[in-house]
Amino acid sequence: MILVTGATGTIGRPLLELLAGAGAKVRAVTRDPEVAGLPAGVEVVTGDPSRPDTIAAFLDGVTAVFLHPRAAGQTAGDLLALARERGVERVVALSAINVDDDPAEQPSRFQGDRNKEAEDAAVASGLEWVSLRPASFAVNTLRTWAPQIRAGDVVRGPYAGFAEPLIHERDVAAVGARALLDGGLAGRRLRLTGPQSLSHEQLVTVIGEVIGRPLRYEEVPAEAFARNLSQRGLPKPFVEALMARYARGSGPTEVVTDEVEKILGRPARTYAEWVADHAAAFRG
């Protein structure tokens, strides 16, 4: 039995599909099972990973745990200690490729992710462990740019030349499934990226090519963009971390790796493939 935390999230859903499709017994933890809408064949239970006592009973019979850094929060260590007591043997922790960067330049920390804490807890747990360190998810561009693209042919934002190797969420899930099912990746921090680093400007061009529209990226001053984000209600620490990351530009943490291909035996999906999978959301 494999227990998945963060089951309704960007990685959790495709991970459940892959595990169930592989014939594994899967137990998904969610705070609200009635609206979770998880795949058939998955056992859905009510619990809160940030309160390990609420899922203690569901660890019985579990051999491997997928640890989500937002779901577990600051209690990742307590959760894994409890898991070990209950006989769990393996943990796969979701972290991030920028986990060793200055916390002030990690925007996801200000949205609740505790990547460093989750990875450190896994390493110190006494369990067989794997840490997934993905680059930024391609799905972030959907959240940021889709409303603008549905409204017109121009995407406005800062730092047109900022580049990173965005990764398809299904590739992260596929590596996670392999790590949960097979002990061959134990003890590794896996830096997972897409196959190519593309700038904001290039990414928007790719979207246009896939959906058949002549899109372009128009750079706006960073200060004006940050002000707009704050006016839209985004927390100031998140905005500052995001802009600091953009200002720093592409660096060692955004280097393209071939880990996905080595592990899965095929290249990582391209950004164009990701757009094709989500084209309807851009078209509206």
Name its key features:
284 residues, alpha/beta, globular, single chain, two-stranded parallel ribbon, Rossmann fold, 7-stranded parallel sheet
The overall average pLDDT, rounded, is: 92
Please describe the biggest sheet, giving its number of strands, its sense, and whether it closes into a barrel.
7 strands, parallel
Query: What's the number of structural domains?
Result: 1
Kindly report the name of the CATH homologous superfamily. NAD(P)-binding Rossmann-like Domain
Can you tell me the CATH architecture?
A: 3-Layer(aba) Sandwich
Number of strands: 11
Proportion of residues in helical segments: 25-40%
Overall outline: globular
Question: Can you characterise this structure?
Answer:
The protein has one domain: Rossmann fold (3-Layer(aba) Sandwich), CATH 3.40.50. It has a 7-stranded parallel beta sheet, with helices on both faces. A two-stranded parallel sheet has the order 7-11. The protein has 284 residues and is α/β, with parallel strands linked by helices. Strand 5 (90-94), helix 4 and strand 6 form a beta-alpha-beta unit. The protein is built from 12 helices and 11 strands. It has helices at residues 12-21, 69-72, 76-85, 115-124, 139-151, 169-181, 200-211, 222-231, 236-248, 259-264, 271-277, 279-283; strands at 2-4, 26-30, 43-46, 64-67, 90-94, 128-134, 154-157, 163-164, 188-192, 198-199, 216-219. Helices cover 40% and strands 16% of the residues. Helix 1 crosses helix 6 (169-181), helix 7 (200-211) packs across helix 11 (271-277) and helix 8 runs antiparallel to helix 9.
